[in-house]
UniProtKB/TrEMBL annotation:
Domain of life: Bacteria
Nucleotide-binding among keywords: no
Alphabetized SUPFAM superfamilies for the sequence: Winged helix' DNA-binding domain
GO MF term (any one): DNA binding
Alphabetical UniProt keywords: DNA-binding, Transcription, Transcription regulation
InterPro entries xref list: ArsR-like_HTH, HTH_HxlR, WH-like_DNA-bd_sf, WH_DNA-bd_sf
Protein's recorded name: HTH hxlR-type domain-containing protein
Organism: Scardovia inopinata F0304
Keyword Transferase included in the entry's annotation: no
Length: 119
């Protein structure tokens, strides 16, 4: 039996696999939840912190900065006193809408199926 060659010859899977690339950009639970909440429109930091769930300020800030750097969301600072900052999905981030909607639908279907299995 011949041993097959590995499909990936790259050191970095994200260079050749679009699924790995996508997961590297949005693959933690906080980024998905941030995007889910921003689908309804811009939110301020405190609003995001409340809506996302039990996330520390440090982790939320790190994720927001990474997502801004990756072009998934935009950060708008308003010249007001006190300063107001809003986060919003960028046009690129908006392209995740059907994926997040599909995840929501899949989760709802899973819950229903699970209830049927357990009853």
């Amino acid at each position: 039996m011949a041993v097959s060659e590995p499909v990936c010859q790259s050191e970095n899977l994200a260079d050749i696999c679009p699924v790995v690339l996508t997961m590297s950009l949005i693959g933690n639970k906080w980024k998905i939840l941030i995007m889910r909440d921003l689908l309804d429109g811009p939110l301020r930091y405190g609003e995001l912190k409340k809506s996302v769930g039990p996330i520390s300020s440090k982790v939320l800030t790190e994720n927001l900065r990474q997502m801004e750097r990756d072009g998934i969301l935009t950060r708008t600072v308003y010249a007001e006193v006190p300063p107001r900052v809003e986060y919003q999905l960028s046009p690129l981030g908006e392209t995740m809408r059907p994926i997040i909607d599909s995840m929501r639908a899949w989760g709802n279907n899973y819950k229903k199926e699970n209830e049927v299995r357990e009853s």
